[in-house]
Recover the amino acids of this structure.
């Protein structure tokens, strides 16, 4: 029997605070980010994949800590970024994320395990979401 118990939380109410608990993460940005809504999860190190396949309000899990990750997040309206394997971004990256109002988190879990824990929490991957464009409006409109 799997240790994964899907749908523990109502999918529409998963917030950054739930993510922090599920993957034992540390929030690197402002506490007001704790209530940010997360609609799906993506694990990727190729920013071209993030640009091509994610939808709005997706949480990106990555091992990359460059400023380009934050810039990519702004283009696709990500819900936040989780740096895996305990990797910590530079202060410049944190400052840019603060300026972009983007939550940054760090977890010691590797990418695969962190994604698995969030999937068990009830978050879907981007490929599991119904088509509806990049904006994600259909996800929050009750349609």
């Amino acid at each position: 029997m799997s240790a994964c118990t899907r749908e523990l939380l109502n999918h529409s109410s998963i917030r950054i605070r739930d993510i922090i608990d599920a993957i034992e993460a540390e929030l690197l940005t402002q506490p007001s980010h704790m209530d940010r809504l997360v609609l799906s999860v993506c694990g990727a190190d190729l920013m071209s994949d993030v640009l091509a396949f994610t939808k709005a309000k997706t949480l990106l899990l990555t091992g990359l800590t460059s400023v380009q990750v934050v810039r990519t997040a702004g283009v696709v309206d990500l819900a936040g970024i989780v740096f895996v394997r305990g990797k910590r971004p530079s202060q410049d990256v944190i400052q840019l994320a603060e300026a972009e109002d983007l939550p940054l988190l760090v977890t010691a879990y590797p990418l695969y395990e962190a994604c698995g824990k969030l999937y068990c929490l009830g978050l879907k991957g981007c490929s599991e979401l119904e088509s509806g464009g990049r904006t994600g409006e259909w996800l929050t409109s009750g349609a």
